[in-house]
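Mods, move this if it's the wrong board.
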Amino acid sequence: MQRALTDVFVRSAKPAGAGRTEISDLRCVGLVLRIAEDGGKSWSFRFRSRTGKQTRATIGRYPDVALTAARQRADDMRRAVAEGRNPVEEKRAAKAPGSAGTFGTLAERYLDEHSRRRKRSSEGDERNLRKHILPKWAGRGFSEIRRRDVIELVEALVTAGTPTLANEKWSERK
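Not the wrong board. Structure tokens:
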């Protein structure tokens, strides 16, 4: 089934019968609302891989991931597919044991899964990450970042005249 999804529709949608119901969003190519028999809802993104195989990438559960956020993530995945990347393979590689995920990926997960959900200061977290930390560490493997790297970053903030951004314990260690 296809239709232009709205918040009201998604909130009130029920399964159409036995099995899983899938509703494609007409406003966002590839975005699908999946409704299980028990009424549980989740978002996924359907695309064709480079091999031509129809593939589905899970975006997240509703209401944890709202309609606007699901559309944004689907747009991001569509861009990745257009660039020749496979979002499913990238997600698997990032979660694989022993894989060296990047700090940028970890920072995005922190913002999505913790900061935006649980903190009133999430905008400040995001601003500070994007302004002070990600320009230096976004592409680095998080397993490569050592204590000396953190001290160096904090000392640079203190030297730049922004000691309030640095943890007080670190700034006193000069």
